[in-house]
Amino acid sequence: MKHILLIATGGTIASLPTETGLTPELTSEELLRAVPEIGACCQVDTFQLFNLDSTNLCYRHWLKVASVIEERYDAYDGFVVTHGTDTMAYAAATLSYLIQGNGKPVVLTGAQRSIAERDTDARNNLKHSFLYAVSPSACGVKIVFDGKVILGTRARKSRTKSFNAFSSVDFPEVARFSGDRLISYFEEKRGTVHFYRELDPSVFALRLIPGMSTDIFSYLAEHYHAVVVESFGVGGIPYYEEADFAAGIEKLVLAGVKVIVTTQVPHEGSDMSVYRVGYKIKHKYELIEAYDITTESVIAKTMWALAQKGDFKRLFATPVAKDVL
Fold this sequence. Notes:
Elements: E1 3-10, E2 15-16, E3 23-24, H1 28-33, E4 43-52, H2 59-71, E5 78-82, H3 88-98, E6 99-100, E7 105-109, H4 122-133, E8 140-145, E9 148-151, E10 155-157, E11 166-168, E12 175-178, E13 181-184, E14 194-195, E15 203-207, H5 216-223, E16 226-231, H6 245-254, E17 258-263, H7 276-285, E18 288-289, H8 295-307, H9 312-317
Parallel strand pairs: 1-4, 1-5, 5-7, 7-8, 15-16, 16-17, 17-18
Antiparallel strand pairs: 2-3, 6-14, 8-9, 9-12, 10-11, 12-13
């Protein structure tokens, strides 16, 4: 029987109602007791790392999750992490870069309703996470939610209330559950695990809006190591007479700030070579383009690549866990 570690960080799945709204209060042991059938598929230990709303989680907490997994990696066959849904896609992406070549599963799950409620998705999500974690094909960082198994680098929260909260962006789901039966669509290659222990959080995501001023570029050049520009369409950067975006980006480049261009469109990625408004500025300043990497993964990969102190452009372009297609 496989041995799985449940790492609890809080979230809706562990929340109870209070006078000021839902608040994570249930422990990892209480979560496990709510789904007793899990004990029939594996041996489980629990670890209460945090008990926070995921809105309050960030890179510092995910570094600690990765550290807990690294310290206990040889003792367990897999890991299930309960996490709030609001930042779960960011967490899954970040863990995908912190734990690479992972031959064991690291499964993130949560719920849209507390496990203490009668009509909840929590019990199924938690049960399916363990069923996936003990399956022969399980490896790498995944989100298991509403019967879907999604790569950590391709996941996005696409609904705020529905049980079907997460989508796999421009990439097939790894597997699905039919009842409690796991149907795998393809087998992934296992590598040799490598843990990374540093991230550089000095990253700013700048979402363009029509007619915006370029005043912010001076501030960004002084305070950030990288700026992710969420452009229009396939990679359009505007050329307004009253707002010189080219000059703003030049300030960043001259200050040594890494500039990565992605798109604010949810699907199909960027291609700055299509239109003059993208092609011209990309080649003049040798900007880095994200193409089909999700925004969550772009931000996580940027924090990871900055911390490596190596060739940033090469690190960013190198595929990790199918983040680049």
